[in-house]
Amino acid sequence: SHLQLCLYCSISVLSTKIHRMSVRTFVKGSTFWIRIENAKRANSVTEKMWDDMCRGLDQANNDPHTTFTAITGEGDFYSASNDFSPANWNTKKAASKDVETGPFRMGRRLIDHDKILLGLVNGPAWGIAATTLGLMDYVVCSDTAYFQTPFCILGVTPEGGSSISFPEIMGTSRANGLLLFNERLEAAEALQCGFVGKVLANNDLWSINTITGFSEGRFRAPHD
């Protein structure tokens, strides 16, 4: 019926509005925030979103009023790495040896970034979302976070500079457990081996004290 069609169209429009696939940037105090917003797909990153993250890092670098650049995700996941959905990825461009794709440009920007890089890991981080944390200056994670790099399953080499950064941070054997054998690194062990600097209870991660700590150029846990 006409009523059912209108209702279906309304629901479709609403669903489209709710499902954001974007990268949001905003400034709080002395911190430039970059937030991955693709919660329906566990914050996996599309080609356009990689471009947006690179643009955000450029903006943060050129902002004279900020000292810190913080990267985080929305919802329960930090990021499940790349979103290779055909509609969201130019496969011909990605396969070209002459084109530097979004993830590689992102890695280069993290390495060359002039500001202090902070990672606020609000949940699990997979693949390149986990490996690029090794390029940051300080990482805080939720107690629900874990880190996994399934490169051996996918048949690809470690990315994000992790073949260098991981052994330097956590030692050769533990790093190879992640990179070669798809072992999972839990939040508590990530703190113990130095991959993250602090683990917070999930409910405290977005508390006003945590955000204020980042924004004022200092970090403290709510109960420190």
Question: What does this 3D model show about the protein?
Answer:
The protein has 224 residues and is an alpha/beta fold. The protein has ten helices and nine strands. The chain has helices at residues 2-18, 47-62, 91-95, 102-112, 127-131, 151-154, 162-170, 172-181, 187-192, 208-215; strands spanning 22-28, 31-37, 68-73, 116-121, 125-126, 138-142, 146-148, 185-186, 198-200. The longest helix has 17 residues, at 2-18. The N and C termini lie far apart (61 Å).
Output the keywords.
disordered N terminus, three-stranded mixed β-sheet, six-stranded mixed β-sheet, globular, 224 residues, disordered C terminus, 9 strands, alpha/beta, 2-enoyl-CoA Hydratase, Chain A, domain 1
Counting DSSP E segments of at least 2 residues, the number of strands comes to: 9
Structural class: alpha/beta
N-to-C series of helices and strands: HEEHEHHEEHEEHHHEHEH
**Number of helical stretches of at least 4 residues:** 10
Helical proportion, percent range: 40-55%
> How many angstroms does the end-to-end distance come to?
61 Å
Write a brief caption for the model.
With 224 residues, this protein is an alpha/beta fold.
Spell out the blueprint of helices and strands.
Layout: H1 2-18, E1 22-28, E2 31-37, H2 47-62, E3 68-73, H3 91-95, H4 102-112, E4 116-121, E5 125-126, H5 127-131, E6 138-142, E7 146-148, H6 151-154, H7 162-170, H8 172-181, E8 185-186, H9 187-192, E9 198-200, H10 208-215
Parallel strand pairs: 2-3, 3-4, 4-6, 5-7, 6-9
Antiparallel strand pairs: 1-2, 7-8
Keywords: Isomerase, Peroxisome
Pfam families: ECH_1 (PF00378)
Subcellular location: Peroxisome
